[in-house]
Amino acid sequence: MLPKDTNAAFSGGQCAGEEDWVDNRTVYIGHKEPPPGAEAYIPQRYPDNRIVSSKYTFWNFVPKNLFEQFRRIANFYFLIIFLVQLIIDTPTSPITSGLPLFFVITVTAIKQGYEDWLRHKADNSVNQCPVHEVQHGKVVRKQSRKIRVGDVMLIKENETFPCDLILLSSSRDDGTCFVTTASLDGESSHKTYYAVQDTKAYTTEEEVDSIKATIECEQPQPDLYKSVQPLPLGSENLLLRGATLKNTAYIYAVAIYTGMETKMALNYQTKTQKRSAVEKSMNAYLVVYLCILIGKAFINTVLKYVWQADPNQDEPWYNNRTDAEKERHIVIRAFTDFLAYMVLFNYIIPVSMYVTVEMQKFLGSYFIMWDDDMYDKELGESAVVNTSDLNEELGQVEYVFTDKTGTLTENNMEFIECCVDGHVYVPQAISVCVGSLHSSEELFFRALCLCHTVQVKEEETVDGIKHGLHSGRPSSFYISSSPDEVALVEGMKRLGYTYLRLKDSHMEILNREDQVERFELLEVLTFDSVRRRMSVIVRASTGEVYLFCKGADSSIFPRVVSGKVEEVKDRVEHNAIEGLRTLCVAYRALTPEQYEETYRLLNEARLALHDRDRRLAEAYDQIETQLVLLGATAVEDRLQEEAADTVESLHQAGMKVWVLTGDKMETAAATCYASKLFRRGTRVLELTTKRTEEQSLHDALFDLSRTCSDFGLIIDGATLSAVLQPGPEASSAGDYKEIFLEICRNCSAVLCCRMAPLQKAQIVKLIKASKEHPITLAIGDGANDVSMILEAHVGIGIMGKEGRQAARNSDYAIPKFKHLKKMLLVHGHYYYIRISELVQYFFYKNVCFIFPQFLYQFFCGFSQQPLYDTAYLTLYNISFTSLPILLYSLMEQHINIDILRKDPTLYRDISKNCLLRWPIFIYWTILGVYDAMVMFFGAYFLFDNTTFTSNGQVMFGNWTFGTLVFTVLVFTVTFKLVLDTHYWTWINHFVIWGSLIFFVVFSLLWGGIIWPFLNYQRMYYVFMQMLSSGPAWLSIILLITAGLLPDVVKKVICRALWPTTTERIQVPRPQPGPTHWIKENCSHERRPTHWCRSVVCSSTEC
């Protein structure tokens, strides 16, 4: 401990030449400047504590948003068309392109602006959160955004750390505090952090304010677990922003990283933009239609000059071309005409489709969040949609990669048994052997009561959940960084050994004789994923020093020198096969000399200024040797509710399910059998380290590649690394990846065990990059699953017990694994069907819209005369035909929800993007061309100037003809959607018939009033005059019928001769139900007997 009036530097103890560090910062605690005569004081500028997750500001929103929107090809294309209309003389008004473009840009900007406003709102709630700072010996309250580097903060229990802090002191006597880091690494359990030894005695505001010290630390970096080197402080002293103080009344800590320099902010990563298969198809179709547009413009340009080559044919007078324009070079005139035709036909590119798709995805995502079947009462959570851009991708999944612990299983550990020297102890049967415990058994039980980081909580509630209530009174319960540890300590309590508390660096346990035993806690060798074990060094009341170690069997057995290894190993393998999680326990008695050597090794490693983590790992490796095996434990992680049914349904739907886990092979395989990933009759092949030791990897892979299909495969992390990164010996044998992929294609299910988080992402990436390019989905609940969730086409996070990092980084979050079934088989199915129809329908209706304009040029001397009025050109996609397809894409249910859930095989009907394949796209395009030709030539041949009359007056003019074609067009494309709709509600009727009524009413108003702001009145009375003619009504009905008839005939023939599974289900059939036969006869009169059959049908399809 430092005297309160001394100037302390936590970086003290440096060697000569190490005073000045490159790329470091000096933090003055409490902003106390060094005294006169010290080194030159150079103030450093640090950012304030504001967190900014928003994308825009008030000043840059408009230019930045416009730049991003015009990076999209469709928007940029229409901007060019709009500019062309402004620059040159084009047949249509710039409004016809500018207004739809303005509508699309505005709607998108409003949507993105609203989303960014929500981010601003969230930022402000965090930045304006009140915090407590120690100033001049008093606690003052201020906003979080005003924290500066060097401020001394007071944090109280259950408060979240507002920035990255170094722990100075704690309310606990030992200077420790307990923290949950769920928002950082996904771990919701409690972790222990330690105050700086020199300051842990400063426990009041006045004492903390009197500290005069500096902290030398490196500049901020995103590594969550790297310490603030180059000082002798470790990650156990660093409290990270976003973590929460637990089970500790208060702490004092100094801010060292603030705002966007905190590790939490540096770990914000922009997710790579995921694009769905539907969006890729849309872009491909857009390119095709762009080529068609260019072809149309080119053909019309050529034919125009061919037609004008005749001396008797010249530029039409009504185009008002000047002599100067006529005398231009032919190339310039041809190019100008080409651009004019591009403008005239540009509506074949459906710019409004993009905004409709975005609205459909955004609004459609609420159906997932509103689904009561996906609400979990236990968690009080419903499904969350983090991105709506991938809704339809849920209906295209071919591979599902799932974590095991916490995803397939509950991550709720229960102690089952322990094996000591070959003897098995079960809590329920302990009364049988209570009086026959030997010294090894007692040592084993004491080891499990001491070798852990469990904390004892006395309060009645934690995190709002009541714990430890007995007879209405609060009692203690256990909390830990690992649910396994809690299960083991609770298991020991049931076996007669109760862990009481850690007090004054002494661990207290209550033995079977109700006697309290005290052990001094000397050292804790913390668990890490590389060692896969942890140890404690304790001193008993008798003076003996023990090292107790527990960990995975693979990390304990190689370090054991004595004990009943074979008996314990057999029991471990037996429990693993049963699906239980196993740990081995060993110990080592230390002499005073050995303990002194151990203390020296640990102290040197902890005080190292460079490579401290590596030196600590080396020290742990030297200390945890020469162990005596005591026994092993077995803990059960139960399978989640309906997990097996969900996996089986995914198989029936045609998806391949892979389990990626870090557990040992035997445990994971047992879980796979329980979850029906592997069936008892399934032939399961292994590609593991054990097999590759017996034969080369090359031979093992080729043996598996010759195996017949439909088998299960188990592969471990070490072998997978060899497959993905083969050594030099593999060069002559070819690429292992392709062989491995070929094996996987023949597998019905795959289990990958002993997997590191990075390997999970690698395996997902490997499958994504295969030649079939399948759609992948990854689902997990922990921070170790984030990499594969981000890598997969669709990432789903489980709101589990390992925190919310997976849920936050995912595209979708669900409470339980069972909800995946409805999300894919129902929501995914509906989303894909809806958006497929939306995309094809948009291209179809735009072909119907613009192809008559192309045909019309052959009848107007290629003069670029528009067929439709400007108002119709502008409002066709915005008003007249947009709402019906939008509502269809939100509400269509071609099959009942219950049928989709009960029959997973229906998912196969929409797999591999089958509704957006080229043959279907070509069919919709041909149908659009056919309907356009029916509309145009039907109107052309049915009427001539003498027959199309009103009250005996000829009325068949240019705008009447165009209005007739446009009227047939609007009704035809709307009725086409009516024919495709299977699910009718009052909203459908209102929108569809309302859209048609709106068109009629608008046309009557547009042509019935002389609008003063128009410089032309060409549509005046046209629509009303057309409808006053009986032949016009007849032609509209006939042309609509002729346009829809081929599609109806095609559907009837296909359903009758080649029906799909979906179409068979859609056919109404009498459902099984109670049948009543009623016989009516009369015994007095001879009359026919009447039989009446009454069938009760409960199906909604009937």
Automatic annotation (TrEMBL):
Domain of life: Eukaryota
Membrane-topology annotation of the record: Multi-pass membrane protein
Residue span, P-type ATPase N-terminal domain: 43-97
Alphabetical list of InterPro entries matching this protein: ATPase_P-typ_cyto_dom_N, ATPase_P-typ_P_site, ATPase_P-typ_TM_dom_sf, ATPase_P-typ_transduc_dom_A_sf, ATPase_P-type_domA, HAD-like_sf, HAD_sf, P-type_ATPase_IV
Cofactor: Mg(2+)
Protein's UniProt keywords contain Cell membrane: no
The keyword Metal-binding appears for this protein: yes
Reactions that this protein is recorded to catalyse: ATP + H2O + phospholipidSide 1 = ADP + phosphate + phospholipidSide 2
Membrane-traversing stretches: 73-88, 284-307, 338-357, 871-891, 921-943, 955-978, 990-1014, 1020-1045
PROSITE patterns given in the database record: ATPASE_E1_E2 (PS00154)
Binding site for ATP: 403-405, 485, 527, 550, 581, 661-663, 754, 760, 784-785
Catalytic residues identified in the record: 403
Similarity remark: Belongs to the cation transport ATPase (P-type) (TC 3.A.3) family. Type IV subfamily.
PANTHER family, alphabetized: PHOSPHOLIPID-TRANSPORTING ATPASE IH, PROBABLE PHOSPHOLIPID-TRANSPORTING ATPASE
Protein's UniProt name: Phospholipid-transporting ATPase
